[in-house]
Structures are given as structure tokens and as C-alpha cells.
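Recap quiz, item 2
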Amino acid sequence: MIVHWTELTKNQFDDLRESAVVAVNFSSTEQHSNHLPVGTDGYIGEEVLTEAARRAKHTVVLMPPVRYGYSPHHKFAPGYVTLRQRVLTDLCKDLCGCAAANGFRKMAVMNSHGGNTAALHSAVNEVGEEYEGKLDLALFTYWDLIGDALARVRESPMGGTSHGGEFETSLMMHLRPDLVVPSLIEECDPAPSDPYNEIDLAGKKKYISFYTFNRFNASGHVGQPHLATPEKGKIFFEEAAQAAAEFLDFLGGKQPA
Ligand SMILES: [Zn+2]
């Protein structure tokens, strides 16, 4: 069941803090090639988390989402708004700290932008250090929950489903077709991998390195957006919302560590 944090009066928090799960989406604002808007990660992440909160059996108190993330990889193109990594960590830490200070015991941070991973992971460590035994905090990235559906539905080989590729373009065609520009979708090869690193949402990553996202083409996407369809987007969305709902229920029912 979904409850919006900002719609509650101060007295209504009393009934929720013991059993509810607080949830918040972190996304980003950055170029997504020529055919998708810079707010893509937020449009997708917020829809997935809102639908997941609706479907969850536990009460999920949704905090307003954070639309800015860590995106220096996209500075070659207009439209980015990037936070310093330390600021993002502190922002996440403060939101989680406020949930704990308000008496909540469970919290989920859902990430919908790959570049945020390290900063949000740092926040989880720092919150854990400070609120151990008080707040059960879990960070997850929504596409990690639907690896099976992704493998089943995608037509692109490894390297086709990354930033602005088959997966995200399909989701936007389903969720916000008004913001997709089909005439500007380019036909591209999959991003090349090396033996230790596959440039794909489902790829293996045995090492970490920094690169800007015009490395594969000047347009700034990574993967094969020409394989996207709204039908695939609907399946990805349903699977992601359901998987996230089940995860929120798992967190809600889990004994605190
Ligand atoms: Zn994206």
C-alpha cells in the first residue's frame, strides 16, 4: 500500500513508523542520446517505485524522489545536472538519517542510474555505521531484480542494453511515448566488451573504470535503441514493478539485522 510522505500530517506518522517501509528513488539528469529526454532515469525509476509501492502488501511511505545524481560521464552534452559524489552521499545519508530520526525502522533506496552506485553504497555504509540496530537500510538498482525477464525479452546481444539502449528506450516508449523521438533513433552495433567487462546492464563487471558516454558514438547512447518497442517496455515495467514490490515486502517482513 502506498502512502506519500508529503501528504501526511505530523500526527499520522505515529501509526506508520513501527511497521512501514520508507522508500525513495534516486535517479539523474543527463543526456540520453538524441531520442530520449535528460530526465529518463527519473521517469522510469519513479514509475517503477510508485507502482511497486501500490502493489506491496506492506505499507510503503514514499519520500519525494531525488532527480539529481552523479553524472560527470555526460558532460560532453547539454542538459546535465550533476552533484559532486560527496554531496550525493551526504544527501542520501541525510534522508535515511531523517527516516531513522522519525522512528522508522526500515528503508529502501532504489537507484535508477548506474553512475550513482558508488556514492549510494557509501551512504549505506555510513548510515549503517551510525544507525546500526535502528534502521534496516537496503539499496538496490531496479534492473538488477529482473535479470531473467531481461534475458528472455531482449533481442540485442550483450552490449545492446545499456544507457539509452534497447531496455531504457523500450521503457520510455511504454511509459512516456510523448517524450521519445522515434525519428532520431539510430541503428547501432552493440557496445564492445572486453574479457573482464561487458558494457551492458546485465553484463559482468570484473573491474571498474571511468569513461565518458560519447566513447561508443557521438550521440551518447550505449547499446541498440533501434530494437526497442513499447511491448517490450510494458513487460520490463511490469516485471520491475512486481519484483520491486516483492523486495519491499521482503524488507518489510525481514527481522532487523
Ligand atoms: Zn538512463
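The two ends are 24 Å apart (CA to CA).
The chain has a mean pLDDT of 96.
End of item.
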